[in-house]
Amino acid sequence: MKNWILTIGVFFFALSTMQSQSVVGKWKTIDDETGEAKSVVEVYEKSGKIYGKIVEILRADHKKDVCVKCDGADKNKPILGMVIMNGLKKDGSEYNGGTILDPTNGKKYKCYISLESADKLKLRGYVGISLMGRTQYWTRVKN
């Protein structure tokens, strides 16, 4: 009986450790200039690719913002609920080959993401080559 309980405990510990080692989950975004938390993005997998959707806006005065500078189908859409990260594919320890939309300026950038630690996500958005861009660090939202 003791071994059975220990086995179950180890299984659930391993399961929670595996989940925390994934980019999938909810992440808090931080403003580069102010250091203020801006939003929560849910990163999810669909058909083998990674996507990110804004599920919460943390600044009260921006909760009803729309993407006025976006092009195409995203123009004037609410930022809350918007899919901003599209089509990243796993490549070793990082995910790349997709894009990220900055709803503040309406621009799309190539991007890649990787885990710095279980609770810290590194996101690099760039134009052309990776050297021409900026890096953000998002923190995992605890349940």
From TrEMBL:
Q: Name one Pfam family in it.
A: DUF2147
Residues in DUF2147 domain copies: 25-140
Record's Gene3D superfamilies? 2.40.128.520
Superkingdom per UniProt: Bacteria
**UniProt-listed InterPro entries:** DUF2147
Q: Supply the name of the protein.
A: Signal peptide protein
